[in-house]
Amino acid sequence: DKGTYPYYMLKEIDEQPNVMRKLSSEYLNEDGTPVVQDELLDAMKQSDRLYIIAAGTSYHAGLVGKELFEKLSEVPTEVHVSSEFAYNMPLLSKNPFFIFLSQSGETADSREVLVNLNRLNYKSLTITNVANSTLSRESNYTLLLHAGPEISVASTKAYTAQITVEAILAKALGESEGIAKAKDFNLKQQLGFVATGMQSIVDEKETINEISKKYFADANRAFYIGRGIDYFVSLESSLKLKEISYILAEGFASGELKHGTIALIEEDTPVVGIITQSNTAGLTRSNLEETMARGAKAITIATESLSKENDDIVVPDVDELLTPLLSVIPAQLLAYYTSLNKGLDVDHPRNLAKSVTVQ
Ligand code: M6R
C-alpha cells in the first residue's frame, strides 16, 4: 500500500534510510562485526577471483561492488552483464566464485548464466530481495536485501541495499583474510551516517523538484558524468532518468566526453557532474567546465568536503567507498520529479516490466 504517496517510487526512495538501519541490524553485531555464515566466507576465501553477474540497476550496483571487494577484501573482481556473459563467457580464473545480484531473483538473463554455471559445478551466491526466488533456490548461498517489496518498475531501494550488502560482505571477507583496511572500516558507524545523510536529502526533496523544473522540463537529452565510483553512479542516474522520463540520458566517465560525446552538447543541455572522490574532483570539475563552454547547463552533486560555493546539491560526507549511497538519492529524485512533472505514470513506464523473465 502506498499510503499517502502518489507513487510507489517516491515511497521507496523515502524508505532508504530505514533499509540502511535494517541492514545494519541484520548483518552487523553491536560491536560492528559482520554476521555472515562461515561456510559462505570459506567458499569465497578459496576463490582467486569474484565474478558479479547482473542486469540493469543491479549491474550498476555490481560495479560499485567491484570497488568494495577490491579495496576491502583485496580480491580481483569482475562485473558482467548477464545477457552478455551467458553467450560470451570470458576466460575464467582458476577458482572463480560467482555473485548474482538481482532484486527480483527472477531475471531470465541472470538465470541462464546460473544454469550454465551449475552445470559446470561452480559455487555461487545470490544477493536478492526475494527469499525463495529462482536465483536464490538455484545457487549455493543467499543473502537477502531486507528492503521490503519494491513495486515501482524503477529500482531505487534495492540498489542502495545491494551496495550495502556488498560492503558488509566485502568487510566480512577482508576481515577473515586479516586485511587491515577491512578491520578498520567502521561500517556500523558509517551506515548510521548514511541513514542520517539520506534522511537529510529526502527531507529537502523540493529543492530537487525545482532543479528538475528548471533544467529538465524542456530537455531532450541529458548527461551524467563522473570518474571511478562517480562514473558508476552516473550510469545508474542516467538509467533512472531515461526509463521513467523518456529523456535520452547517458552516463559517461567524465574524461571520455572529449573523445566524442561532447559533440552532442547543445545550448542548455543539462550535464550533471557527480563529485565525491577527492582524487578526481578537480578533473570532473574541469570536464564540466568544458561542457559549459559549449553551452551546457552544469548541475553538480558534490559531497560537503569537496563542495564549492555554487554547487547545486551538496550531500553529507561519508567514507569515499560509500558515497554512491548518498549521491544516487538526488539522481533518483531528479528522475522521479521529471517524470511526474511530465505527467507520466512514474511507476509503470512504457515498454517495461518489473521483472524481466524473457531473454
Ligand atoms: O530483478 P533484477 O535486479 O534482476 O532486475 C534487473 C533489471 O531488470 C532492473 O534493475 C531494471 O534495470 C530496472 N527497471 C532499473 O530501474
TrEMBL record:
> What EC number(s) does its UniProt record assign?
2.6.1.16
Major subcellular site: cytoplasm
Per its UniProt entry, which superkingdom is the organism in? Bacteria
Q: What keywords were assigned to this record?
A: Aminotransferase, Cytoplasm, Glutamine amidotransferase, Repeat, Transferase
Record field: catalytic activity: D-fructose 6-phosphate + L-glutamine = D-glucosamine 6-phosphate + L-glutamate
* SIS domain location: 40-179, 211-349
Where is this protein localized, as stated in its record?
Cytoplasm
| Catalytic residues identified in the record | 354 (for fru-6p isomerization activity)
Role description: Catalyzes the first step in hexosamine metabolism, converting fructose-6P into glucosamine-6P using glutamine as a nitrogen source.
Q: How does it assemble?
A: Homodimer.
Identification of the protein by name: Glutamine--fructose-6-phosphate aminotransferase [isomerizing]
Full-protein interval shown:
249 to 607 of 607
